[in-house]
Amino acid sequence: MNTGIPFLPFPHRHLLGIEGLSPDEITLLLDRSESYVEQNRQVDKKQALLRGRTVINLFFENSTRTRTSFELAGKRLGGDVINMSVQASSIKKGETLIDTAMTLTAMHPDVLVVRHPESGAVQLLAEKVDGAVINAGDGSHEHPTQALLDALTIRRRKGRLQGLVVAICGDILHSRVARSNIALLNIMGARVRVVAPRTLLPAEIERLGVEVFHDMAGGLKEVDIVMMLRLQTERFHGSFVPSIREYFHFFGLDYAKLAAAKPDALIMHPGPMNRGVEIDTAVADDIDRSAIRQQVEMGVAVRMACLEVLTRNLSDAAPAK
Fold first, then answer.
1. Confidence check: pLDDT of 88 > 60
2. Contact, 210 vs 175, CB < 8 A?
3. 57-61, 143-147, 260-264, 308-312: least confidently modelled range
4. Which residues does residue 59 pair with via DSSP β-bridges, in sequence order?
5. CA dist., res. 176 & res. 17, Å (int)
6. Average pLDDT over residues 85-106
7. CB 278 within 8 A of CB 250
8. Which residues pair with 195 in a beta bridge?
9. Helix (H) or strand (E) run with residue 104 in it
10. pTM of the prediction?
């Protein structure tokens, strides 16, 4: 595809996280993604950049948006895409992660897209396989393609990232989305706030370069972007909130709380949404303020860009991991 955008090399074999990427490398991925947004709106969405390439989606956790968008991304680029069902795999029979990596390597896939409930598991796989590895979310660590699609959504709506004030609200403690977004936004020159009850914040969160607020009124004051997070009750080991009703009263986004933000503040949520828990239905569906559906659209474009740049690297001399 001739996009008019010169292709610059991406100097990483894998995409395991946002940390370690430079502003230029992030911009490269966002610029490549832009070209795919328009392609995906055409009748003929397919091309042959990945013809002959094999992409394996290896998901140890349930996923709808991420797995489906990676599958669409690979197929629209002309690749062979395989979704591995962990529920039916040998891992359920006791096979170790390393044995799984060795088995998959013997099949010579070009790209492994991996989601795993344990932080660091994707890094371990990347050290044992020959192809490229994309982190589709590991534990509470990172989810780099989500941060990239969020950044693309913001850049298309606001025209920039630098200088924007972004409030990330909710379950920061368990959120890999929050960690990747904090890293990317700081790298790209935005100001990041986190808004959450003390029980849902990691220790020493300030070290990540954020301003910390424990109330929505203060945290949302004059912000450009309000990014809500899902309350990840499946990761709770103990009591983190008194009740869902009380959580929504103090930290759920409704129009009363949104009034503290700028009048044109953008509303975002990585999904899946718990309506009436993190966000009011009317706010989530506000066609003028909400970018939630656009985030889903940007996800396919971003994942196409990531598959493109990493498979181009496989055609060249292998760079350092």
1. no
2. no
3. 57-61
4. 85, 115
5. 10
6. 70
7. no
8. 169, 213
9. helix 97-106
10. 0.92
Contacts of 245 (CB under 8 A, 6+ apart): none
Task: Write down the residue that tokens 């913001």 correspond to.
Answer: 154
CA 183/CA 3 separation, integer angstroms: 28
> Cis peptide before 242, with omega less than 30 degrees from 0?
no
Residues contacting 83, CB < 8 A, separation 6+: 57, 59, 67, 71
CB 292 within 8 A of CB 273: yes
Type and span of the H or E element at 302: helix 292-315
CA dist 91 → 54, 85, 95, 99, 174 (Å): 21, 10, 4, 9, 25
Residue 86, judged by CB atoms within 10 A of its CB (0-12, 13-18, 19+), counts as middle
Check: CB of residue 183 under 8 Å from CB of residue 158. no
pLDDT at 1: 47
Provide the strand spans (E) within 187-315: 191-195, 211-213, 225-228, 266-268
Neighbouring C-beta atoms of residue 245, cutoff 10 Å: 11
| pLDDT for res 97 | 79
The Cα 56–Cα 244 span in angstroms is: 38
Residues 6 or more apart whose Cβ sits within 8 Å of residue 27:
none
101 token code pair: 């990596």
Whether the Cβ atoms of residue 139 and residue 123 lie closer than 8 Å to each other? no
d(CA 54, CA 24): 28
Q: If you average pLDDT over residues 128-150, what whole number do you get?
A: 95
